[in-house]
Amino acid sequence: MRLIFGRRGADTYQGSEKSDLLFGGRGDDRISGGGGADLLDGGAGHDTLLGGTGADMVFGGSGNDRIEGEEGSDVLVGGSGADTVLGGAGDDLLQGDALLWGGGDDILDGGAGNDLVYGDASDDRLLYTAAENVGARDAYIGGQGSDTLVLTLSRAEFAGAADDLTGLDAHIASGSANGFAFSSLGLTVWGIEAVEVILTDTAPTLTAGALSVTLGEDDTAGATVSASGGEGHLSYEFDLTGLRGAVTDLGGGSFAYDASVFGYLVEGETATDTFAYTVTDETGQSVTETITVTVTGLDDAAAISGDAAGAVVEDQSSTASGQLLVSDADAGQAVFQAPVGLEGAYGRFAFDAATGAWSYEAGAAAQALGAGESVAETLTVTSLDGSASETITITLSGANDGAVISGDAAGALTTAQGSVSGVLSVADADAGEAGFASLDASELQGTYGRFAFDEGRWTYTLDAGATLGEGITATETLTVTSFDGSASETISVDLTGLYTLDNGSFEDGTFFADGWDMLGFGRILSEAETEEPGFTEGQAILPTDGGAMVQLSSQTTDAAQLGAFFGVDQAVFFDLLSAGQGPDNVAKGLQQTVTVEAGDTVTFDWFLDDASPFAESVAFLVADGEVIELGRTDTSEGDTGWQEGSWTADEAGTIDIGFGIIGDNGGSGASHLYLDNVEIAG
Description:
By secondary structure, the protein is mainly beta. The chain folds into five domains: about 5-200, no CATH class; about 205-295, Immunoglobulin-like, CATH 2.60.40.10; about 305-395, Immunoglobulin-like (Sandwich); about 405-495, Immunoglobulin-like; about 515-680, Jelly Rolls, CATH 2.60.120. The chain is about 5% helix and about 45% strand. The protein contains six helices and 52 strands. A hairpin with a 2-residue loop joins strand 25 and strand 26. GO terms for molecular function: calcium ion binding. It comes from Parvularcula dongshanensis. Keywords: Secreted. This is VCBS repeat-containing protein.
C-alpha cells in the first residue's frame, strides 16, 4: 500500500498494484490509482483523477475536476465545481456534487455496466450511450437544478426508441416526480428537465436526377421524377415559373404535362420547356433538379378517296381493279405507303403506292367456293404519313364444281359368307362438299340382305335365313350420290347361292331360336321322312324323340372351306383323320352364335354313319373356337349309333357353337351326321 499526501502545486502521483491512499492537496494534480481498490482525493484545484483497475473511491474535491473510474465498480464523487465524471467499465456509482464541497454544473457518464448516477445540485448533463449498455440496467437521477439527459444513439436505436422519447417528453411536461423507464433501453430516469439525442451515424445522402420528357404537340404525357437516399418520407415540389405548358401535380413525384399550347409547331419542329423540382426528406435535406420537356410538331391529317370495292365470280370474272387518291396539305405527302400482305386466301392484290392504282386476281383456291357461297378479301392501304387508311374489299362469289366418285363399287359373296364391304370416296374442289348425300332407310334394303353406308364405307350383309339355291346367282345394288348431286355411283354385289339349312327348330323347344349357318349340303328331315324305310341307304336311323332331326352329308366342300367357315386352321381338321391331309377329303358343317352364362351346358344327341364302310369319317363339335372330336367310323364300323353329347361354358359371353364331319372316302360314297335335341340349359 502506498500512502501519499500531495503538497502545494501541480503534483502527479501513480499508485501501486495494491490498494493505495492518494491525496492531492492543493494545486492541479494528476493522480492514477493503478491496480487495487484505491482511495483518491484530488483536494483543491482542477484535478485529473484516474481510478485504474479495481473498485476505487474517488473524490474530486473543489475545482473543476475530471474523474475517470476506468475499470472496476467504482464510487466517483465530483465535489464542488464543474466536474466531468466518467464511470468507465464496471458497475459504478457517480455523484456530481457533495454536501461537503457544494454544487457545480457537472457532466456525468456512467459508461458500461449497471450504473447509478446522481447529478445532485446545479444544472448537470447526464450522458448515456446505448451501444455500450446492451443488457445493462442504469438509473440516472438529475437532482436539483435543470438537468439534461444526453442520449447517444445510432439511427436504428433512435427509431426503436421513438415511442420512449415521445413518452419521456410527456413525462417531463407533466412535472411528475416519478421515474420514467425506457422500454427500448435499460435505463430509468428521475428529475430530468430536458433531453438531447446525439446520432452516431448520418442520414443517407439525398439525391435526385434530371428528367427528360418527349411528346407530340397534341399529347399529354405522365412522368415521375426519381430520388433516392434521404431519411423518411420524401416530399416533392414543382417550380412552374416561366413554364409554357400545363403541369398537373399527381403526388409522389408524378406529374402530367399537357403540350397542347404547342399546337403551332409544324411536323418535325421541336420546342423545349424547362422547370425545376425540389425533393426534401424528413431531416430537412433537399435537392433541386431540372425537368426538360421536348415537344415535337405533328403532321396534318391526310384524306383518302376513290374506288375501294370490287367483285369476282368463280369461272366467270377472275379480276377486279380500281383507283384510290390521297390528298395531304404537306408537300410530298400525297402518296401511299407500300402495303404488306398482298397475298389473300383466295387470290392476290397488286397496288401502286405512287398512283393508288390497284387490282385483284382470283387464284386456284377460289375453286373451293361452292355455289351461292360468298367471301371477302381485303387489303388495307395507308397514306405516307400514316394519318389516313382505307380498306379495299373484294367480294368473291362461288360456283359449283363437279364431284368425282372413286373406290370399291363391286363385291361378291356366297350365301355362306354373310357380308362384303368396300370404300368409296368423293373428290370435289368446293370446300365442305367432298362427301355423300344421305340415304333413306328404304334405299338400303335389298332383296336378300341390307346395305349399310357411312361416309363412303359400305357393307352388304345377308339377312338371317336368306337362301339361294345352290349355284343360283343374284345381284343387289345401291346407288349413292355426291353431296352436291353432281356425281353418282352404283355399288353392285353379286350373290352366289349355296344350299343352306332352313331356320327353325327340329321340334318345338329343342332347337336354337336364332337358326343355323350351313356349309355344304344339309337338311332337316321331317318326322314322316324318317319313318320311311331305307331313307339312310339301309341304315335304321330314327330320331331319338320320334320327331324331326338334322342330316349333314359330307359332299362337295373340303377342309379348307371348313376351316374358313369355323374360323379354325384347316390343319386341325386334317389332324382328326388317321391319314391326315389327302386329295379326297370332304367336309360339312353348321354353326350359330349364341350368348351363354358361365356354367351353361349345351346338350345334344348325335349319330354318325358312313355310306362307304371302307372310308374313315370323323364327327366333331366346335365350341368357342375349340374343335372337339365326337366319334368316328372306319372300315370295321359303319355307324356309331345314337350318342349323347354335351359342352359346358367356363365363362359368360357370346360364342360360336357348331357341328361338322370330315372324311376320307376315296372320292365315292358319303358319310352322314344326324343331330337331334340340341338345347342350352343353365
